Amino acid sequence: MPSAMNIITHPLLKVQELFERNWTETNDRDDFGVTEYFQNQFDTKEKLSKIPLLDSKSVDRLPLHSLVRFRCMVQDTELSQEVALFASASSTNPDENNVITSVVYDYLTNVSITSILNLIRFYYFKLVCHRYSDGPRDEAALGSDPSQDLMDLRNSYYCVSIPGESEWIRKYEQKPNVGLETAVQDLRLENSQKSSKVLQERFPFAGQDHFAAVVKTHSSDVSIGVTDMVEVIGVLGASDKVMTGDGFEIHDESDGPRIPTVHAILMRKVEDHGHPELNVDGLPSKDDVEHLTKEALAIRKELIDYIASALKGDTLAAEFVLLHYLARVHSRPSGTVLGKFSLNLKESRSGTPVFEDLARITKNLLPKVHALPLTLKNLNDEFYFPRGDEQLSSGVLQVTRGTALLMDETALEEGTLVEKGLKNLKAISNVSLSQTLSYVFPFNNIDFQTDISLLIVSLGNSLVPVDCAITLKPKESPGTVTPPTEEQLRSFRKYISVLRLMEYKFSEEMAKEIESEFMEQRKAATAAGTTLMTPNELAFDISLARLVALSRGEQCLTKTSWDQAVALSKQVKARG
C-alpha cells in the first residue's frame, strides 16, 4: 500500500490500482472504490492538513496531477456538461499481435464477438482510467475504443476562494508542510501550472484579489448549490477554458480565459461558520461543547468587554453585538425564518465613529467578514445581487452562509438612488427580512435562501428594516482596554463558533412558563390601561432568549436566561 505522501504526489497511480482491482464492464461505474478509499485515508483534520491547500500562492508551484485541497464557495453550478473518456485501451506488448490474431481466428467460429473483444483487451490491451485526470496524454488513445460504455459525463462548478475569509483563518490553513515541499520539488520543475486566471465579475467583492478554479465531478450532486462552502479533495488538472450554457461540450483547447481545474474525488459541504478547528464537517465535537459550556460565562464577560472597547464602552450594545454573532437561521417552518438577528447600531451623535473599530474586532473574531461603506456611489454603481445570462455574474450579497456583512450607513451622502441603487437596497432589505436573495435572469428571477449576519451602523434609523435596533450610548471616559492575547482570541473564536452551532432545545415547561407570564402581563396592562404586549414582541423576546441561553453555554432555555432576555429587551426599548 502506498504511503500518504505517495498518494498526495501520485494519486492517479492509486486510482488506476483501484480501477484494475475493482472495475469490470458490468460494474456500476460510479464507484469502484476510489471515494471510500480516499475518505478513509483523510478522515480527520490532521490527515487533511497533509494535503497542500490550493490557492493563488500555491497554484504555480504545485505539480499537475498531484492531490490538492481546495476550500471554496460554489459561485455557479450551471457550467456546461462535458463528455470525456472514462477509460481507454493502451497496448501492453505490440510484439504479441500475431499471437493474439491467431487466437482470435481459431475461436472466431465458436466465440461471440463480445468475448473476442474481451479476449483482445485482456491479452493485448490495458485499460487506463481517466476519470480524475485531464484525459489520455497519447491522443491516439482517443480513438482506441469509442464505445459509449467507456465515456464519462462530467459536471463542472465554478468555485472561488471563500469571500471575506479572515486573515487568521488563512494563516491557520496555510501552515507549510515541509515534507511535502521536498517530495514534490522535482515534479514541480517539470510539471507545474502555467496559467491561473480569474473572472473578476464572478467574485462578489469588486477589486479584491481571489482565486478561482473549475471543479469537475463525474456525478451531479443535487445537494451542492450556489454559495455553498465546500472542501474539495481532488487531482490538480491543467488550466482549462471555462464553458457555459446548457449543451454538452467536448474538451476544447481554443483560446480564451483559462482557469485551473480540480478533478474532485471528494466534495464535502462544510457547515456555515467555517472555524478550522472544528470537525471535518464543520460541526463542533462533543469535547468542544462540554468544554465551552463550562467556560461560557467567564469567556462571555471578557468578550463583551472586548467588543465594548470598539463601542466607546457601551456594554449593553456590546452584548447585543455578541448575540448577533451567535445568531443563525436554524429553521424555516411554513415560510417563517427562525434564528435571524439583523442588527442596527444607531449612533446618537456624529463625531464618535465606531464602524472601523467594530469591523477590526469582528474580523479578529469571526471566520468570514466583509465591511463596506454604504455610499450613494456604491449603491448606484455596483451590483449587490447576482445576475446571469450565459454566465452567472456575482453580487456583493452572493456569499456563503455564516458570512458577517458590516455596512456603514453613516457614509451615505445626500443624492438620488437610480434604478440599480433601489434594486440593491431592496436586495439588502430582503436578506434582512427573509434571508433570501434574488438571482436575476433575463426571463425570470429565482430566490435562493441565505443566512447572512447583517450589521448596519447608521446615524438615526437605518434605511434597511432590521430585527433589532439599539441607540449607542458611549461613555464619556471609556478607559483603556488591554488588547486580548492570542490565546484569548483563540478562546473567543472557538466560543462563538461552537456555541453558535450547538444544539438548543426549548422545553415544554419553559413554554408554559412564558405563556403564563405573557397572559398575566396582558391582564395587568388591560387593568392599568397601558399598551398591551404584542405577539411579535413576545416572539422577539423568545428569539432573544435563545441567543442569551447559548451565550451562557446553555443547551436548554432556563428561567435565568429568559429573565435576562426580557430585561435586555426592555433596556433597548428604553433607549428609543
Automatic annotation (TrEMBL):
GO terms for biological process: DNA-templated DNA replication. Its main location: nucleus. GO terms for cellular component: nucleus. InterPro entries: MCM_complex-bd (IPR019140). GO terms for molecular function: chromatin binding. It is found in: Nucleus. The keyword Nucleus applies. This is Mini-chromosome maintenance complex-binding protein. It comes from Podila minutissima. The lineage of its organism: Eukaryota, Fungi, Fungi incertae sedis, Mucoromycota, Mortierellomycotina.
